[in-house]
Amino acid sequence: MTIRVLLADDQALLRHGFKMIIDAQDDMETVGEASDGAQAIAQAGALRPDVVQMYIRMPGTDGIEATRRIAAQQPDVKVLILTTFDLDEYAFNGLRAGASGFLLKNARTEDLLAGIRAVASGDAVLAPSTTRRLLDTYAGTFQPATTGNAPRDVLAPLTQRERQVFTEMASGCSNQEIAHRFTLSETTVKTHVTRVLAKLNLRDRVQAVIFAYENGLSGPRR
Questions:
Q1: pLDDT exceeds cutoff 50 at 206
Q2: Contact 47, 4 (CB under 8 A)
Q3: Ramachandran area for residue 80 (φ above 0: left; ψ -120 to 50: alpha; else beta)
């Protein structure tokens, strides 16, 4: 299948460069461009792309708000955040808004393409260790639910094994590490991960880690 990409960036020259790179791939095509967040929201609704490559710092409606609205209105559309500085609050807020990951704006071509393919397939761009480091850095911005929302309540839809898998996901473990921990095949772990995300109504592994923090199920490493 061809991955349909919407480019959202206020710099026309960069959009043109990204378009050339994407359209040169056998499995991708650029279906639209937006110069600000409002246009990105409108284009996402009209074009229904698989992935929106979203720059955060745009005039008017910024990339964070655009991501939030797209995630709410078009849950099947994945958003890949582009940011200027690694681990800045913009990237963090973009992930909380519903993005499936983030890359630096000056990422290597192969990393950009791999990121688009990853979010299109339902994965997060960030490696589990990177996800964990990001959230450890900004854990102070969370306000965990400490009353009336005990872990057993928010995880009620999960089986015992799915709870175990969720706990490992929230700790930033990869599928391979989870498989080794519970003596399972990676295919079985992937099935469990898919079911956990579906039952908790989460988009990807990044959102699973955020969910754990927000509900007091995980915290910064000591």
A1: yes
A2: yes
A3: beta
Cα distance between residue 139 and residue 81, in whole Å: 20
pLDDT, average across residues 4-23: 95
First vs last Cα of the chain: how many Å apart? 44
Q: 42 φ, ψ to 5°? A: -65, -45
**How far apart are the C-alpha atoms of 75 and 77, rounded to whole Å?**
5
pLDDT in tens, 37-49: 999 999 999 999 9
- pLDDT score of 101: 80
Give the tens place of pLDDT for each residue, 75-85: 889 999 888 76
pLDDT exceeds 60 at position 139: no
- The residue type of 119 is V
